[in-house]
Every structure is written in structure tokens, then in C-alpha cells.
Amino acid sequence: MLSQEILRNRLLNYIRCNGTTQKHISKQTKIRECDLSKFKNNKGELGSLSEKALNSYLLSKGY
Questions:
Q1: I want to staple 33 with a disulfide (CB 3.0 to 4.6 A). Which of 17, 26, 41, 62 is the partner?
Q2: Could you report the per-residue pLDDT of 3-60, keeping only the tens digit for each?
Q3: Residues 6 or more apart in contact with residue 50 via CB below 8 angstroms
């Protein structure tokens, strides 16, 4: 299983480098925007399905 911290860092790098919004990522991954926001700001963890969805999305973008 991926470390949530590593996944968070990949997410932050992707947003910073591409100027993508968490709203866009939320729509693409079907993760609720509030959950993604909490995860991004280190205020919460993602469930395993959301974690897999975000990981797949970031991998597809090269992150």
C-alpha cells in the first residue's frame, strides 16, 4: 500500500507544476472535493478506493 505522505507529495507537485485545481482532480477521480482538500492539507487521510483512484490519476499524468 502506498504511503499517504508520498501520495500527498505527488499530488502537491502535480498541482504546483501544472496549475491544476483540486476541483478538476476531484471530478476526474470521483473523490469528493472536501475529502481531497483535507488530504491535500494534511488534515485527513484517503480511504483505499480514493487512494487508488488518485494514484492511478497521478500515474496517468506522469506523477
A1: 26
A2: 999 999 999 999 999 999 999 999 999 999 999 999 999 999 999 999 999 999 999 9
A3: 29, 31, 35, 39
